[in-house]
Amino acid sequence: MTHPSHSHYSISFTSSDSSALAFVGERAISMAQFRQDVQRQMTALSQPGEVLITTSGRYAFSVALLASWLSGHAVVLPANQRPETLQQLRNRFAIACECDRDWEASLHAADRIAGHGSWTVELPGDFEALRIFTSGSAGEPVRVDKTMASLCDEAQALCRQFAWPNAAVVATVPPQHLYGLTFSILLPWFLGVAWIDEVPLYPLDILHAVRSSGAKTLISVPAQYQAMLQDKTDLRGVHCVSSAAPMPATLAREWQQQTGADLLEIYGSTETGVIASRRQLTGPGWSALPQVSLAVAQGVLQVCSPYTGAGAATPVHSGDRVELLSDGRFYLQGRADAIVKVAGRRVSLTRVESSLLDCHGVLDAAVIAMPAPGRVRDVEICAAVVAHDQAGTSVRSLRTRLRDRLEGVEVPRRIVFVEHLPRSARGKLSVAAVQALFAVDERACVHA
Fold it and tell me: Which residue, of 289, 320, 339, is where some domain finishes?
């Protein structure tokens, strides 16, 4: 457990014969091992500048992160692992050290030691701790800076707000992004529970990670919960958290029916941190975290929060359209930039996508507007669909169901069936990636 002390945050790392600090594979990591690895890395950080972390596992990430912070180095986390992205970061920042996969391999190859007990560290709250980047799903990734106080205060607020099991945390999202960093690294640190090195992606791997570690919390995204539903993955008794995109109502209901539990959904962004939460079967509205203030300007949500890094008094535009309710909750109505004009009429791409996801047999969907120069329409609505049974789900049947829910111009004119959508590690889709699905093979697209 951790407690803020004026301008510092104290974190105690503990382990015992019956309680591991972390897991790498099925191997339990002791407090003494973690302390040695962190202190060894601290001695290597003799040069000024930032530390770039691109490790694949969560344990090495934790070692690099804590060693950097304890030695006074800010950490840079890339938006993605593409070579050109990493080279741009090297050119942009004064990189003192790169903790990459080669460094990670050397860390795991070092001699292992055993030893239990407690190790307490202190982190300064006013330290500029992190340079992190947005996903860039709608354009170029944007840099966001975070102070230690904004990161630690948010983790502490999450500890207080929800009832967390006293057991290990498994996450299918990487720690290089804010959702993964907050929920699979900082949250376990503050709760005093073990974290898991692996980033499992497939249902059987997720189940193995949960069972081998005794984990009782899973951090994931809607697309992976959908895959686990299809695979009938038995996660009864596991506290499941979802973010990166709103959970379709049908998926939330099916998950509750299969596991007996209602998923906890988290709404936030890299710029704002965590904004709100909901449990859909309790109600579709979102409730803001304590200390988070909301307002609407021109239909778009504005957030004032101590977790933004910009300061609690500085409003941050979320880019999302919302409806504020009288009891303080709100409904999400999609991205402000997801409204397009088709034949002179406003069309919500979010509404079209939601209608598709409500159609029987549709597992995942992405809707975009693409240029269609003509006298009537400048753009046309296009949909990429993942279906449970493509042979049983046809374009005609989808359109028939959509016409009962949507206006004529809202019904997609081009539909392509795909095996899976090109989601990033954080579960997001870029506009360019979806557009590419229609450009790969024009013959795969079915027109109205």
Answer: 339
Q: Are 61 and 145 in contact (CB under 8 A)?
A: no
Q: What is the pLDDT of residues 231-290, one digit of tens each?
A: 999 999 999 999 988 888 888 999 999 998 899 999 999 999 999 999 998 887 999 999
Task: CATH number of the domain at 22, please.
Answer: 3.40.50.12780
**Does the predicted TM-score (pTM) go above 0.70?**
yes
User: Which of these three, 339, 355, 372, is where a domain ends?
Assistant: 339
Beta-sheet strand order (sheet of 300-304): 293-297, 300-304, 316-324, 330-335
CB 201 within 8 A of CB 224: yes
Are 198 and 25 in contact by the 8 Å Cβ rule? The answer is yes
Q: What token pair was written down for 433?
A: 């990636």
Q: Are 286 and 298 a contacting pair, CB within 8 Å?
A: no
CA distance 135 to 221: 15
Q: Nearest 5°: phi and psi at 36?
A: -60, -45
Distances in Å between the Cα of 127 and the Cα atoms of 7, 9, 147 are: 10, 11, 6
Q: What is the pLDDT of residue 93?
A: 96
Instruction: Please classify residue 314 by burial: count the beta carbons closer than 10 Å to its beta carbon, then call 0-12 exposed, 13-18 middle and 19+ buried.
Output: exposed
